[in-house]
Amino acid sequence: MAETGEGSRQQMPEALQLHGSDHPGLILVSTLLTKSNYLTWSYAIKRVLRAKMKLGFIDGTSLKPNATDVYFEQWIRVDSMVTTWILNCISKELVGGFMYANSARALWLDLEERYGECNGPVMYQLQREIASLVQGNMSVHGGIFLTLASSLG
User: Fold this and answer.
1) Would 142 be classed as within a structural domain?
2) How big is the CA angle at 104 (ends 9 and 68), to the nearest 5 degrees?
3) Predicted TM-score (pTM) of this structure
4) Start and end of every Retrotransposon Copia-like N-terminal domain (predicted)?
């Protein structure tokens, strides 16, 4: 809790705190990013970063402070950690193209630009999978349907 009175320091924001389990080797999700699974992968990454209170480092809401700010070095440290966590969750075939990202936000935007757009063949395949869920003899599993439907945008 923050202290009050003269000479007190403001408590460090939660987003800038790292905990004992937050280390550079951490793998946030069980499925690595490939050329074809960006949408589901990105949802999983965002969910974990939200739980760790670090989502702002990729969505642009945790802005880099001025170099004179008391939390500047800590922000750099946490941003580097988030960047490393994301890199740990990219397949070996793809990760080399992202190693030189200068921030978690820059990395996220690059990933989104390269893999985030849903092209024609992918949309066609998703539509076929949804149709088979709705028209087949088996019952529709809500989780599968929602995943496929959300992938269509």
Assistant:
1) yes
2) 35
3) 0.74
4) 19-66
